[in-house]
Amino acid sequence: MRVFKFGGASVKDAAGINNVFDVLQKVGYDDVLLVVSAMGKTTNALEVVVKDYFDKSAALKASVQEVRKYHNQILLDLFEDERHPVFKAVNDLFAELDYFLGHNKSPNYNFVYDQIVSFGELVSTTILSYYMNHRGIKTHWIDVRQFIKTDATYRDAEVNWELTQKNISKGIKKKTLHITQGFLGSDENGFTTTLGREGSDYTAAIFAYCLGAESVTIWKDVPGVMNADPRYFENATLLNQISYREAIELAFYGASVIHPKTLQPLQRKEIPLFVKSFVEPLLPGTSVSKGADLEPYLPCFIVKKNQLLISLSSIDFSFIMEENISEIFALLHQFKMKVSLIQNSAISFSVCIEDKFGNFNELKNKLSKKFKVAYNENVSLYTIRHFNEKAAEMVQENKTVLLKQSSRETMQVVTKEITS
Ligand code: ADP
Ligand code: ASP
Ligand code: MG
């Protein structure tokens, strides 16, 4: 069996959905399971709905309507006849969302978030499944929440592998083209959970692992994994082959082309991951598998924007030692900060972090009770794997360097853009 994942960019409009049909025609769809994300930027739009809901904003109606209109336009572009049953199916999903917004009593932000944003994937897979059937590719839509079971850590749920394995082994029939939602799962009580932003790649890996799949292919708007994000670096070059280890490192440092959790399950069963272009599906793209670490061997650049650099120093000039450091980390963990770099000296400790959940103010207040806290907001973290002198110079050009660190293979530089 092969697992294919189509992300938001691949299904952002009717032309994209048509293209998914073409890709399947070209590469075959025997024994394939399709994992699909929400269309385009729908998850971001649903995050606005969540915010408006909690703010009790008058804009709530309009923000829901925007998501609805976007999908309705895609439906109108794909299906000529408005009496086609897909219109009712999608309408029913939006009615369910309205019902939730009107009746929810839970004050738990993360819980509510998951119940709302999950509609993105439910709607996209419904549209795709009906459309493929309409064009003659018979699909079987399944609700991923009946397969992927998780704990109740809403927005960042942990997979219960044992239960998930059981459900997938029992419920997925070979020789059927299944289509299901990325990013979602459900907890013990059947409530929807999500696996973290950009988590659909991970969903594909979970299915592949549990099915012992032959391969996973993630279809992208780029030719494959490149040695830099082509949005930020000119001359980004396609990598033909990378090892699991190298891919884990790249994803860990923030190469957003692969979700970091994706690789571990695949590596455990040595299931190859192909990253390919949905525009040119017959090109080989990148193979992430056992084998050469990096082919061609080039410095790889990763940039993470909008990071925070915090420097803590002891109030009384005492050393920052194990005990303090463990306390600092406990707080970073408690406030769900993603740490991407650490540096310490005798009396100071610096971390570069990403505040994914908007907890920085609370964290700062806690830290200020014990330490002098200095920080820079909105800094960029550049990581270069397999760096050389030229690559190091390039990332520092025209920027203020706030912190630099390197090991044998990896150099990291925290910079602030020079604004004049
Ligand atoms: P999806 O539609 O699957 O969610 P994403 O937008 O998350 O796709 O990922 C594809 C994007 O990842 C590309 O458009 C590219 O800008 C970005 N990207 C970041 N790092 C890399 C890299 N090293 N190689 C290729 N693309 C990269
Ligand atoms: N739709 C989700 C997101 O945008 C999951 C994904 O696309 O991978 O985060
Ligand atoms: Mg994505």
Features:
binds aspartic acid, 24% strand, 420 residues, Carbamate kinase, binds magnesium ion, alpha/beta, 6-stranded antiparallel β-sheet, binds adenosine-5'-diphosphate, 38% helix
Task: Please describe what this structure looks like.
The protein has 420 residues and is of the alpha/beta class. The chain has 2 domains: 219 residues, 3-Layer(aba) Sandwich (Carbamate kinase), CATH 3.40.1160; 118 residues, VC0802-like (2-Layer Sandwich), CATH 3.30.2130.10. It is 38% helix and 24% strand. The strands form 3 sheets. The chain has a 9-stranded mixed sheet, with helices on both faces. A hairpin with a 3-residue loop joins strand 16 and strand 17. Helix 2 packs antiparallel against helix 3 and helix 4 packs antiparallel against helix 6. The structure holds adenosine-5'-diphosphate, aspartic acid and magnesium ion.
SSE diagram, text form:
Layout: E1 2-6, H1 14-27, E2 32-36, H2 42-54, H3 60-78, H4 85-103, H5 109-117, H6 119-134, E3 140-141, H7 161-171, E4 178-181, E5 184-186, E6 192-194, H8 200-211, E7 215-220, E8 241-242, H9 244-253, H10 263-268, E9 273-277, E10 286-288, E11 294-295, E12 300-314, H11 322-334, E13 338-344, E14 348-354, H12 360-368, E15 371-385, H13 389-396, E16 399-406, E17 410-417
Parallel strand pairs: 1-2, 1-7, 2-4, 3-4, 7-9, 8-10
Antiparallel strand pairs: 5-6, 8-11, 9-10, 12-14, 12-15, 13-14, 15-17, 16-17
Helix pairs in contact: 2-3, 2-5, 4-6
Magnesium ion binds at residues 7-8, 198.
